[in-house]
Amino acid sequence: MPIVTCEAAVKYLMDSQVVAIPTETVYGLAANATCDNAVAKIYSLKSRPQFNPLIMHVPSIEMVEEWACVSKFAKMLMEEFWNKRGASISFVLELKKEHPLSLLALAGLSTVAVRRPNHPIALDILNSLPFPLAAPSANRSNTLSTTTVTHVLDSLGRNVPAVDGGICAVGLESTILDITHDQMMILRQGAVTEADLVLFGAVSNANSDTAIKAPGMLSRHYAPQKPLKMDVTQKQPGMALLGFGSCCDADLNLSINGNLSEAASNLFRYLHELDRDPFSSIGVNAIPNTGIGKAINDRLKRACSI
Ligand code: TXA
Ligand code: MG
């Protein structure tokens, strides 16, 4: 299958085709967000339920201001987290009445999720295009997100053009923060945590009672094929053990030194590697529920639920 250059990727995207591109979180399956036909190709390749809206990837705050309502507060957060910190966070904003975005990509919502990826290849491509890119994670729906180009091609098939950007450094999807209400609300946990956000105001966490339904919050979402068990201390017969910290019989170890950022960046790749015969299940050591550990546990819980 074609591993393509950035220049070729830009041509495909201008021509309403999809391209898998690297970001610092996970690979994205990108297409012109202003073109229904291009966006439809994303849904069909991923077999994604059509009600699930896509994140708009942008090179700058200025592009967002063209079609979303960017308050002073929103702009301050974007400057801080995107421009200063290069942090992996998507903001949910109200759309302007007139906007060029594909209604299919928005899944009928009057809000939009936006993100500036902190990856040189993604930014290079975005800076060469006059439109935002709709880009969900580059995997078939309800399967693991992908953090290497090989996993992208394994998941989506060999006919999808993909740009190889190596291994994604963060390894977990972006934090999603809803800032359309008085109080900020975390819709999806990620590398930017509540502790990073409380400095800017009160933050709540979406839970199952929350009216807003980000389909990323559906219980079973990030799943390997084999059954997964959390907080495993002892390997059972047939089980592949994914270790964390000092664990002597792990098949793979997320971080021997107990470093949570390293564990996050390895998580999907290692789950991919253990999701195969002869293993009949995957067990994971307990992960401390602090900092990005919360996002790791969130993904693991979803992968466990049936
Ligand atoms: O790190 C990431 O965010 C990756 C990379 C490729 O950028 N993208 C990603 O996209 O994870 P996806 O489509 O797999 O997840 C997007 C999540 C979905 O759960 C969707 O429901 C939510 O964002 N979402 C999109 N627009 C929304 C909106 N207006 N309000 C609430 N949730 C929204
Ligand atoms: Mg996804």
What do these coordinates show?
- The protein is an alpha/beta fold and 306 residues long.
- It folds into 2 domains: 6-205, DHBP synthase, CATH 3.90.870; 228-303, 3-Layer(aba) Sandwich (Rossmann fold), CATH 3.40.50.11030.
- The protein is 30% helix and 16% strand.
- The protein contains 10 helices and 13 strands.
- The strands form 2 sheets. The chain has a 9-stranded mixed sheet, sandwiched between helices.
- Helix 1 (6-14) crosses helix 6.
- It is globular.
- It starts with 5 loop residues before the first helix and ends with a helix.
- The site of threonylcarbamoyladenylate has 27 residues, from strand 4 and strand 5.
Keywords summarizing the entry:
10 helices; DHBP synthase; binds magnesium ion; 306 residues; globular; single chain; binds threonylcarbamoyladenylate; alpha/beta; 2 domains; Rossmann fold; four-stranded parallel beta sheet
Number of separate structural domains: 2
Strand content: 15-25%
CATH superfamily descriptor of the largest domain: DHBP synthase
CATH fold topology of the largest domain: DHBP synthase
Mean pLDDT: 91
User: Globular, elongated, flat, extended or rod-shaped: what is the shape?
Assistant: globular
Largest β-sheet summary: 9 strands, mixed
CATH class of the largest domain: Alpha Beta
- Poorly predicted runs are none
Structure classification = alpha/beta
Strand order of the largest sheet: 1-2-6-3-5-4-7-8-9
* First-to-last CA distance: 33 Å
